[in-house]
Design brief:
By secondary structure, the chain is of the alpha+beta class. 22% of the residues lie in helices and 32% in strands. It has helices at residues 21-32, 75-87, 97-103, 156-167, 225-237, 302-315; strands spanning 9-18, 35-38, 44-47, 55-59, 64-72, 93-94, 109-112, 118-122, 147-152, 170-179, 182-190, 198-203, 217-222, 242-248, 255-260, 266-271, 285-288, 293-294. It has a ten-stranded mixed β-sheet with strand order 17-10-11-12-9-13-16-15-14-18, with helices on one face. Strands 2-3-4-1-5-8-7-6 form an eight-stranded mixed β-sheet. Strand 3 (44-47) and strand 4 (55-59) form a beta hairpin. The chain is globular, with a radius of gyration of 19 Å. Bound molecules: fe (ii) ion.
Length: 329
């Protein structure tokens, strides 16, 4: 019988490539309330818990997320993922020691994932017991990992199949909504007790990708509601572009706001999403409307709208990269 690795994988780190390191430091420390360390490799490394690095911003031209690091429980889980990928024609290679140090892990293995994101697998993070100096009182990580990512896809069927066949992802629920005049379907996937580690967004009808960056947003979960409201006020005070005001999602019930990062993708800072504790009792629901209340869009000025429409049209001419070969070998 195929080994089930559900519950054995969680988001561990995110690596960003940017030319705006000073802006990122200010955004992370003064806005989000993260702990920042200067590093020997010239990157800005943010901490939020005992892991020595969670969000790493490396100098480079992409102005985008470069890699998602997935922490797996043990060597057996790593092996299961590697052999599934191998059976679908995906090559997995080990990263070099210097790259592992940059990511704050002992060793890691990588492959090219959906949308050409570098997907990286690791077992052991490097830990840092020195005190955290940050404005946020704490972040919820643990078994559910550091948060979730939301990604737009023109090929959501392949994307879903990737998560289900390689990571044993389970569908938590679905939401449909019209945003800025365009119909969207969202699918929320959980890899562990966190309601979702991945959300897939797809346009209805013509499948377009209006988002320049590989992810739409990265979610981080603050420890308290006060942490979220204080960060919201700090971000506004700093003049950062708020993408959505504070609001609540109907499915995970998280209270959150969205702010644009210096690299263009958004950070959702939230509090208190539900945890799926009883897998047997979970029912897949379908909701209408991405938010119960709030989440008022603030960044949809005319220029942004035109840019997104242009990107959506251009995306129709390109095929989205999907890592798995069509038929299992
Ligand atoms: Fe989210």
């Amino acid at each position: 019988m195929k080994q089930d690795i559900f519950g054995r994988v969680r988001l561990g780190y995110v690596l960003v490539e940017s030319q705006r390191l000073d802006a990122w430091r200010r955004f992370g420390v003064d806005g989000l309330g993260l702990h920042a360390d200067a590093t020997a490799d010239g990157a800005v490394a943010f901490r939020m818990d005992a892991h020595s690095r969670r969000l790493i911003v490396l100098e480079g031209p992409a102005e985008d997320v470069a890699a998602l690091g997935w922490q797996v429980d043990d060597a057996a889980t790593l092996q299961a993922i590697r052999s599934r990928l191998g059976a679908r024609g995906v090559e997995v290679t080990e990263g070099d020691p210097e790259a592992a140090r940059l990511r704050g892990v002992e060793r890691f293995w990588r492959f090219t994932g959906p949308k050409r994101l570098s997907f990286e697998l690791f077992i052991s993070p490097l830990l840092d017991s020195s005190p955290l100096r940050m404005a946020t009182s704490g972040f919820a990580t643990g078994a559910g990992g550091m948060g979730h990512v939301a990604i737009t896809s023109r090929d959501p069927e392949s994307f879903l199949e990737f998560w289900q066949s390689i990571f044993d992802a389970r569908v938590s629920d679905r939401i449909e909504d019209r945003l800025d005049g365009i119909g969207f379907d969202f699918t929320f996937l959980r890899l562990n007790e966190r309601h979702h580690s991945v959300a897939i967004a797809a346009t209805r009808g013509l499948r377009m990708d209006p988002i320049r960056t590989r992810i739409h947003h990265l979610n981080l979960q603050a420890a308290t509601l006060d942490d979220v409201t204080a960060a919201y006020l700090r971000c506004r005070e700093l003049g950062l572009r708020i993408a959505n005001t504070i609001g609540q999602h109907p499915n995970d019930r998280e209270l959150s706001f969205y702010v644009e990062s210096p690299s263009g993708f958004e950070i959702e800072l939230g509090w208190n999403p539900i945890v799926v504790q009883d897998e047997q009792a979970w029912q897949i629901a379908r909701y209408r409307g991405i938010s119960l209340w709030g989440h008022q869009p603030m960044n949809l000025d005319a220029v942004t709208r035109i840019r997104r429409a242009g990107r959506g049209l251009v995306s129709l001419t390109r095929r989205e990269f999907a890592p798995l070969s069509r038929t299992p070998r």
